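Title: Comparing notes on inverse folding

I've been comparing how different people in this forum approach sequence design from structure. To keep things fair, I'm posting one structure and asking everyone to reply with a full sequence. Here's the target:
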């Protein structure tokens, strides 16, 4: 039987309900009874992050780190808070600290890459995403962030390929077709830009374009005809 009054369950319930103010007050009460309560210290910082009180969140993260300087939960919460304050150099320092203990921490590799992107250090960011993808080739976060880095560097074709890979893995990502379309526009490929915006994968574009040539119609009309036929077959 679940103990509803257990602090861990209470905090989980408040967090799930997005009651961050109540979560903060509850943790504060716990800390008045026991100042070094790790559960309360860790979760009060989390509530403050969601309340966008980043400086206070960092103070509580530091209290945890004074007790255990390698506490991963506190280190990652501190990274979230530093990101909220746009202190990306400090984010990189903390990420390096975590990676010394665990070089395969994908979350940290991606966070470090994002911080480098924010500092316009896109070539360095690519190394972080490449390392993530060596560990997990289907890591959508790394694929998308690598595409963003490549587009910043003007490498639009490769960026499109990485966006396409992420779209194959997770077709629900609505921002990917738009991003791909914009890059095709930059490459002066309006038909591909149109198809990308409709969510068409790279591998399917040539077929549609070739069929349009055979039928002597525009890619737009061919796509519409294909969609009409598919809807009728359903």
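Reply #1:
Here's my take.
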């Amino acid at each position: 039987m679940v103990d509803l009054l257990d602090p861990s369950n209470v905090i989980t319930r408040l967090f799930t309900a997005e009651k961050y103010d109540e979560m903060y007050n509850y943790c504060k009460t716990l800390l008045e009874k026991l100042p070094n309560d790790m559960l309360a210290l860790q979760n009060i910082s989390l509530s403050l992050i969601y309340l966008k009180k980043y400086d206070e969140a960092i103070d509580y993260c530091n209290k945890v780190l004074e007790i255990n300087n390698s506490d991963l939960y506190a280190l990652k919460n501190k990274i979230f808070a530093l990101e909220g304050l746009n202190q990306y150099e400090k984010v990189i320092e903390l990420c390096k600290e975590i990676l010394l203990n665990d070089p395969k921490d994908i979350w940290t590799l991606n966070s470090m890459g994002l911080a480098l992107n924010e500092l316009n250090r896109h070539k360095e960011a690519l190394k972080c995403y490449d390392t993530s993808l060596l560990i997990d080739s289907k890591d959508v976060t790394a694929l998308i962030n690598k595409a963003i880095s490549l587009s910043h560097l003007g490498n639009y074709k490769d960026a499109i390929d990485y966006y396409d890979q992420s779209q194959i893995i997770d077709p629900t990502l609505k921002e990917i077709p738009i991003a791909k379309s914009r890059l095709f526009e930059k490459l002066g490929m309006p038909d591909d830009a149109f198809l990308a915006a409709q969510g068409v994968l790279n591998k399917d574009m040539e077929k549609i374009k070739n069929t349009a040539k055979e039928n002597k119609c525009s890619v737009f009309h061919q796509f519409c005809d294909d969609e009409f036929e598919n809807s009728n077959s359903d």
